[in-house]
Amino acid sequence: xxxxxxxxxxxxxxxxxxxxxxxxxxxxxxxxxxxxxxxxxxxxxxxxxxxxxxxxxxxxxxxxxxx
Length: 67
Hints:
By secondary structure, the chain is mainly alpha-helical.
């Protein structure tokens, strides 16, 4: 495995964190407690799998493998 620069991984983590926070802010209006966190995780995953612009997980993996 080729090590990736920490700046790239940190940027990805920040983006995922922001997306998760936005989803949580919406979900927490309707649900409370640990169940809300499970729903947030599931919705974030579904977003990346079934995004309106295509499967972002697949695109990102293909992009990384080309490098």
